[in-house]
Structures are given as structure tokens and as C-alpha cells.
Amino acid sequence: MKRVSPLFLALLVLGSFFATYNLLTMIMHYKTSSSENWDLSNPLIQMPENLKGGGDSNLKYHVALTATDAPYSQWQCRIMYFWYKKVKDMPGSDMGEFTRILHSGKPDNLMEEIPTVVVDPLPEGLDRGYIVLNRPWAFVQWLEKATIDEEYILMAEPDHVFVNPLPNLAHGKHPAGFPFFYIKPAEHEHIIRKYYPKEKGPVTDIDPIGNSPVIIRKSVLEEISPTWMNVSLRMKDDPATDKAFGWVLEMYAYAVASALHGVRHILRKDFMIQPPWDLKVGKNFIIHYTYGCDYNLKGELTYGKIGEWRFDKRSYLSGPPPRNLSLPPPGVPESVVRLVIMVNEATANIPNWDTLNRG
Fold first, then answer.
1. DSSP string, 36-53
2. Most buried pick, 66, 112, 278, 292, via CB within 10 A?
């Protein structure tokens, strides 16, 4: 294992709040805009003009996610790793090995269960309560110190569940990413231009993505990561940018950093679904359970109001959800039902589920 170079540590001096979930406004927008401008029969939204054909499906990718040692992060990582192992060797999968990048600075009690590399968090206070700011710094350290055999890397998150075998969707130096409806660089040009000057090109060269899920060539990520970290810190240090981007600031930073390096992403809307707004699993690859799912007993969504039936990961901040969660009432979309079934299967088969991760 290599030591983190002083060069990377020096990058931290460039400067650096709470991750505020203004989810209700974004959710209502998601409900009306998630499909209105997309051809739902075609999962490919954007392919760079010089590319044709599929991705590099013969090349394995390494699955990597960043995490903390908090119980809330740990139980999600355990479920995510369970489903990684289930789909890794299925036909159609290009998954390689797996790493949890633990940016708490010290080992935790999952080291033997999940392949883990420990890296340092940002210096105390630099993230200003915005824990996600540690993500680019974690990737910088991991890429510097770890031996990674695969040519490609999937940047994933603890609240991802692999629902279908995932092939390598990237194509050479062009990563594959998921288009987020709320990442709109053109609508924030006056902000974006602080980090992406006009001489670099039009703001439309910045893809509407975050860093996850993204499948990217390792060499490209090694180039982007220090810039991603620096832009994240600069954005957080600028009050106007911090106010405009809020909890998605680090996502904008990754998108800008990619554009600064001339990297365009293949946009795949089949990369993942996000219940309760995406209703069917179909041939999509990942379920992302970032949003709460609240329903009455008639199967009607009650978002913004705690439902008679609910599943929300934030209900389990201090410890894991119990085994054998109740299934949703009749009428609830298939995506939500499938999510709960998959959570239940994982928790039923993971040893010491109820006791290992209590806060």
C-alpha cells in the first residue's frame, strides 16, 4: 500500500454547513419532469458523437463506495454488499472486486465482513457538517494508496441495491453516468462560471450528473479526482455557491471537474431507479432508496406526510431496520415492493444483523 503523497495533502489548503434536505420541492419536480422529456423506450440519453455501439462490456470494473463508521452508513453498506455478492457472477455482469472506502480514519467492526480500505477524513471542521465533502478526498487517497486490478471503477453509494446484473456501460475514456433532473448547470451559469471559465467552452459541456453511479476508467478518475476535490472545497467556501447548490454541491463539483478535463459522460437513465417516483424495476440496474416511501393503506402515496405504511432509511439513523419488514399494502408500485423484499432477503441472511450496528 502506498502512502498518500504530500501533493494531495497540500491540495486541502484551498479551503472547504449542513447537508440540507429540501427533498419535498425536488420530489414534486421529479414527479412531473422525470419522464416528460425522455424517450422511455431508449435508455441511452446522451452518447458522445464520436462513439457508436455498446460499452466496454468485456472489461471488468471495481465496485467502490465511500462510507463512515456510523451505524446508519454501516447497515446500508451491509445490504449493498450482500446484493453485490448475489449479482456479481450472474450472466451479464462485469463486476470485479469490491472496496468500501472508509473515511473515518480508523477501522470499524465491518472490516472482516466487507473488503475495506481506511482513509483519512478531511481535517476537523473543513466539511462544515457536509459529510459528503469527504467523498472526493476519500477517492483521491484510495486511488493513491490501493492496488486496483480492474481498468474501470464503479462509484456507488451505500443506499444502492443491485437489482439486475450490471455490465460495463462505459466506452473507452467516456464514463457512463446517470442523468439527475436537478443538476442543471445552464440554469446556474453565473455560479458555474466561477469554476468553469468561458474559454473552456459552453456550460452545456457540463453533464447533468453526480459522481455516483458512474462507471469510469481508472486513469480518467485519477486525473479528475484532485480537481473534483478542489472544486468541491472552493464551492463550499463560497457562500453564494453553497446557498445555490446546497446538498448537491459535491455533485456539481464532480460534473464541473469532469468538464474541466474534457470528459463527457454517456448518460444512461436505466442505470438506476429511485422509488417511489420510478414505479417499475424492469431492466434497470440499481435501486437507489434515497427518498422516503409513505403510503396509506389504500396504496396511495402520501409524500410529505408520514404514511400508515412507510419505508424511509432516515427512520434508522442509530441502528439497522428490523428483519422482516412488513410489505407495502396492495396498490403500491412494484419498485417499492421489490425494494422491501430485497431488504428483507438481505437482513434475513446477514449474520448478527440486529446487534452488530447499534449506535
1. TTS-TT--EEE--TT--S
2. 66
| Average pLDDT across the chain, whole number | 88
Other CB atoms within 10 A of residue 335 CB: 22
Q: Cell 450490471 identifies what position? A: 166
Q: What φ, ψ does residue 349 adopt, rounded to 5°? A: -110, -5
d(CA 210, CA 219): 18
Which helix (H) or strand (E) segment is 254 a member of?
A: helix 249-260
Of 358, 65, 58, whose CA–CA distance to 211 is shortest?
65
What is the per-residue pLDDT across 21-48, written as a single tens digit (0 to 9) for each? 333 334 334 443 443 343 434 666 666 6
Contacts of 209 (CB under 8 A, 6+ apart): 177, 178, 179, 180, 183, 251, 254, 255, 258, 265, 267
Please report, to the nearest 10 degrees, the dihedral formed by the alpha carbons of residues 167, 171, 175, 181 taken in order: -80
